[in-house]
Amino acid sequence: MPPLLYLFALTNLVIGTGAFVLTGILVPMSDSLGVSVAAAGQAMTVYALSAALLAPLLVVATGGWPRKRAMLFALALFAMGCVLSALAPSLGMLLVGRVLMGAGSVFSALASGVVVAIVDAPRRGRALSINFLGISLSYAVGLPLGTWLGFGFGWRTPVWLVAACCVPMALLLVALLPARIEAPGIAFRGLRQAAAQPAVQRVWARTLLYFIAIFSVFAYCGPVLQALNDLTPTQLSLVLVSFGLSGVAGTIVGGWAADRFGPTRSMRMQLLALTATMVVVPFTQGHLALSILVFVVWGVAGFGMMAPQQLLLASAAPQQAPMLMSLNGSMLYVGTALGAAISGAFIGSLGFARLSWVGVPFACLALATLWMGQRRPVAVATPSA
Q1: Over the stretch 101-111, which tens digit does the pLDDT of each residue have?
Q2: Is the pTM of this model over 0.85?
Q3: Residues 130, 232: Cα–Cα separation, whole Å
Q4: What's the rounded Cα separation, in Å, for the pair 4 and 157?
Q5: What's the angle, vertex CA 190, arms to CA 188 and CA 194, rounded to 5?
Q6: Tens digits of per-residue pLDDT, 41-71?
Q7: Mean pLDDT of the chain
Q8: Taking phi first (over 0 means left), then psi (-120 to 50 degrees means alpha), and beta for anything else, what does residue 286 get?
Q9: What is the pLDDT of residue 379?
Q10: Which residues, in sequence order, are CB contacts of 242 under 8 Å at separation 6+?
């Protein structure tokens, strides 16, 4: 695999950590800003909506730029948003910073477009899984570390740390990213036709639905885990580490399975596992080992779907891959926002321990989209056995 993929993964680690670190420290953040936990959770909603709406616009706006300049611009936006968030004296100012961070998350879509261009089709599933490995590592490393730092030294500390990490990432990109990369920026010719394909629309719908399901819980992961079991901050961080490591494993396995068995078949098993674990979560209350096991299975299944979804889009229309992937990212973030908002409305009636049940219907609908597409599957190149 091209070494450049690992640089993208490292940068995505920083971006993923900044995006999700607040979910583990909602309680101290809400106390500091003088708002409710549900209100503080909307920091994730605002980030998600910003990424959903602004990232595709930035893909278009930077379409004629060299990929290096576009990716550095995206990282600069993200870093500025981190600084503003860390300085925020109120929830309103924090949300402004999260808007900038969401816009900067377009880096991931730009990197995916480069990956599709520089890696041959039979290895794209694994290549995309490496690119997204940084996002799953952010759960294994960034989120637990940020949770521990947030409880021990204040919620602003991990946000400042993410802002600081953007600097060496930018320097590495300047030094190692070629000035000219033969990768598509944005090709409008054929875009409408590509987006009109039922197979592409099913991918977007599936992403929307299963991220609503996942973030009906994950937007409030800290309070949920503490409601299931009485955890100290250190124990909470360790549980998040186990969940994050399962996400790393899921990302790697998902890319391999997509290349080996095809993306649709691999996602069917992953969605079945995700749905089952969401049903089971509340029954693990008071049983820490069982809670960890269920969340590990959840992590493997949830993260394993990233590469297959991207592979389906890249296979459907390679020249439109950056825009299709950016719009898929929009579905991801809209799902993230809706998951946080929908489950937030049920906290009072269900409580944090049973919050996963809110997402079960959406997981079932995501699973249904796979059977809807059985008659007209997207052709994906797979290696011979």
Answers
A1: 999 999 988 88
A2: no
A3: 33
A4: 30
A5: 110
A6: 888 888 888 888 888 888 878 878 888 999 9
A7: 85
A8: left
A9: 44
A10: 292, 295, 296
- Decide: helix, strand or coil at residue 288: helix
Q: Determine the Cα–Cα distance for residues 116 and 100; give it in Å rounded to an integer.
A: 26
Q: Quick one: how far is CA 321 from the chain centroid?
A: 18
Output phi, psi for 241, to 5 deg: -60, -45
Helix extents (H) in 140-281: 143-153, 156-176, 191-195, 198-218, 221-228, 233-261, 263-280
Residue 259, C-beta contacts closer than 8 angstroms, at least 6 positions apart: 122, 123, 124, 125, 126, 382, 383
Give the Cα separation of 274 and 297 in Å (integer). Answer: 8
Q: CA-to-CA distance for 133 and 16, rounded, in angstroms?
A: 10
Q: Where are the domains of the chain?
A: 4-372
The residue that leads in pLDDT, 184 or 166, is 166
* Superfamily classification of domain 4-372: MFS general substrate transporter like domains (1.20.1250.20)
Q: For residue 59, give the 3-state DSSP assignment.
A: helix
